[in-house]
Amino acid sequence: MGWAKYHEDNVEIMNERKAAMQSYRKETEIKIVCTGILPITNIIVEIKEQPTAPRRIEYQDRYIVCKDCGRKFLFPAKMQKYFDKMDWDDPKRCKCCRSYRNTRYLMCSYY
Prior knowledge:
Blueprint: H1 7-28, E1 62-65, E2 72-75, H2 77-86, H3 95-108
Antiparallel strand pairs: 1-2
């Protein structure tokens, strides 16, 4: 809805919009009534958690097939532990394919 040509009509439009906004705000108002009286009984909630032992994972060297070239590469236990600590997924590419992909990405990126 646009604005009218005359000032009186614009004032009327503004009043209609204000009324619409006030009715919209009235629907969403929440009134909280406090009597100032506290309950006589105390409510006690106990949350008991089961103690869990820290999960111990034994890492072993394993071979993974590269996603790009299809060759097997070693994923040592030490690196597996580091990847788990950093919350990373296992690598999908061997070192050669990874470096090739990174260089290609750097050459094609624009700043």
